[in-house]
Specification:
The chain has 151 residues and is mainly α. The chain has 6 helices and no strands. Helices cover 64% and strands 0% of the residues.
């Protein structure tokens, strides 16, 4: 396979898995996570939950306006919540995220799945079957693997 200069773009799978150029970031290129304080994990999970509640709550408000004919002001609240949601992931600890947008949002996706089911259960009184529970659990396991993988 041909070598590409640092910072160049390729359209191969290897471009997705190549480590970050250590000179371009203050975060070490590789970590076994043993040097990451437990507080960073707690902050990370809390931020994922806050982001999820803002996104799901904001989407729910818009849904209520469109589908349940609630007052337009409910949608305005939802749009504000969605805007705030967009900022929250930026505060993920660099020790875990390596300031990687794709990694943060991919990990957040698993939380979004589980929190969406929780919202449906506790806010809309929905019930779910084993497929829903297993799927949400697998999503969270996937998040744990991706988020905690030694780099």
């Amino acid at each position: 396979m041909a070598s590409h200069p640092p910072g160049s773009s390729t359209h191969t799978f290897s471009a997705l898995v190549d480590p970050v150029d250590a000179a371009s970031t203050s975060v070490p290129a590789h970590s076994d996570h043993s040097d990451i304080p437990p507080r960073a994990y707690a902050v990370s999970v809390a931020l994922f939950v806050v982001a999820g509640l803002l996104e799901i709550g904001g989407g729910w408000c818009v849904w209520q306006t469109v589908k349940a004919r609630k007052h337009w002001s409910v949608a305005v609240v939802g749009v504000i919540m969605l805007a705030v949601y967009g900022v929250v992931p930026c505060f993920q600890p660099d020790e875990l995220s390596k300031s990687n947008f794709g990694r943060v949002y991919a990990a957040y996706g698993g939380f979004f799945i589980a929190l969406s089911y929780a919202w449906g259960r506790f806010v809309d009184n929905e019930t779910y079957d084993a497929g829903d529970i297993v799927g949400a659990t697998l999503a969270l396991v996937g998040v744990g693997i991706a988020w905690c993988w030694p780099r």
